[in-house]
């Protein structure tokens, strides 16, 4: 057993950090308990100007600090961390996570078993619910990310009313549409080939965009439920934050414009021209914070239009690498997850990819 462990390849873990030293410290303490023979950790300081960060990192042997002169967000911070590492496999990870001691080896094993796999996601459970004695999924990724034909993301183990209890229902590995940035395991060669995360996303949905591009290029994204990571959630931006609303709506529309085929985009974007104002109207019913969120939705839509020339240039690059049609990619997925859930339908992806 020990000899087999020694044959496993090194893995580099990249953790972008902006604020919340206490989260980072608990994350690093948890990672020290990982049962894996060769693991490097790079903490990317997004110009946090936090006193004592260097001293904190110095407490952990083998952990490196990469300080950036400006805040580049999750996407830019991860890209900077990528440039500072060399391992064949990478994990992009939030700093408010804890980890089962055996979380890493199943991911490496799954990636080595299938060279067409570009990204993997562990089962992501809620740390806050665990501390209450509950075994429930975390909102940000749960048992694997999916996407409907209108571009709205959803997850196995997550519903409109909340998250499900982990009762073993999703314990079989499966193809998923996107792997959560809470703990996203990535093959280095593919990440490099596709140019990594899009820096301009800054935060939110950059992992969905990357997963989408991976699949368009013929690779697979899969879940590995035997790997378990716990996530506290909302450590960077609180749920319901207008800033979070802005990035979610802006980046969602931008990735649709970049990644969908012309036919799919005509249908989906036409629908979204009605649904985005409807979302703003819905927020207006939620009081003062709702007004700010409604404004964030409209601001996001305005910026999508202003940034359209840049987005279309990015679209040209994405579509040039396309090896899979939207018909194949969205096979079995609902047109609208909202109506699918209301009718108690559940879908899964079964395609094998082209790689």
UniProtKB/TrEMBL annotation:
Gene3D superfamilies: Spore Coat Polysaccharide Biosynthesis Protein SpsA, Chain A (3.90.550.10). The keyword Hydrolase applies. Belongs to the glycosyltransferase 2 family. It comes from Chlorobium limicola. GO terms for molecular function: glycosyltransferase activity; hydrolase activity. The keyword NADP does not apply. Residues 13-194 form the Glycosyltransferase 2-like domain. This is Glycosyl hydrolase. Keywords: Glycosyltransferase, Hydrolase, Transferase.
């Amino acid at each position: 057993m020990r000899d087999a462990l020694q044959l496993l390849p090194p893995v580099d873990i990249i953790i972008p950090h902006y604020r919340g030293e206490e989260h980072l410290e608990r994350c690093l303490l948890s990672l020290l308990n990982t049962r894996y023979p060769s693991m490097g950790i790079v903490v990317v300081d997004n110009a946090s100007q936090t006193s004592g960060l260097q001293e904190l990192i110095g407490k952990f042997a083998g952990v490196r600090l990469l300080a950036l002169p400006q805040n580049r967000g999750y996407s830019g911070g991860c890209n900077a961390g990528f440039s500072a590492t060399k391992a064949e496999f990478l994990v992009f990870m939030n700093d408010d996570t804890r980890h089962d001691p055996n979380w890493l080896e199943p991911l490496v094993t799954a990636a080595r078993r299938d060279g067409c796999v570009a990204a993997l996601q562990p089962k992501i459970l809620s740390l806050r619910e665990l501390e209450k004695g509950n075994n429930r999924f975390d909102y940000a990724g749960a048992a694997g990310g999916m996407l409907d034909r209108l571009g709205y993301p959803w997850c196995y183990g997550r519903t409109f009313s909340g998250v499900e209890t982990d009762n073993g229902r999703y314990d079989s590995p499966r193809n998923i549409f996107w792997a959560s940035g809470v703990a996203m395991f990535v093959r280095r060669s593919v990440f490099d080939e596709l140019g990594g995360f899009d820096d301009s996303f800054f935060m939110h949905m950059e992992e969905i965009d990357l997963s989408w591009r991976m699949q368009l290029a013929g690779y697979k994204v899969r879940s590995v439920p035997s790997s378990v990571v716990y996530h506290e959630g909302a450590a960077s931006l609180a749920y319901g934050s207008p800033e979070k609303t802005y990035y979610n709506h802006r980046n969602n529309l931008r990735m649709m414009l970049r990644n969908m085929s012309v036919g799919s985009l005509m249908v989906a974007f036409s629908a979204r021209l009605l649904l985005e104002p409807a979302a703003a109207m819905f927020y207006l019913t939620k009081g003062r914070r709702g007004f700010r969120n409604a404004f964030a939705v409209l601001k996001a839509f305005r910026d999508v239009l202003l940034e359209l020339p840049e987005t279309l240039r990015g679209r040209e690059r994405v579509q040039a690498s396309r090896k899979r049609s939207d018909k194949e990619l969205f096979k079995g997925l609902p047109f609208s997850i909202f109506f699918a859930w209301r009718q108690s339908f559940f879908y899964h992806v079964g395609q094998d990819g082209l790689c």
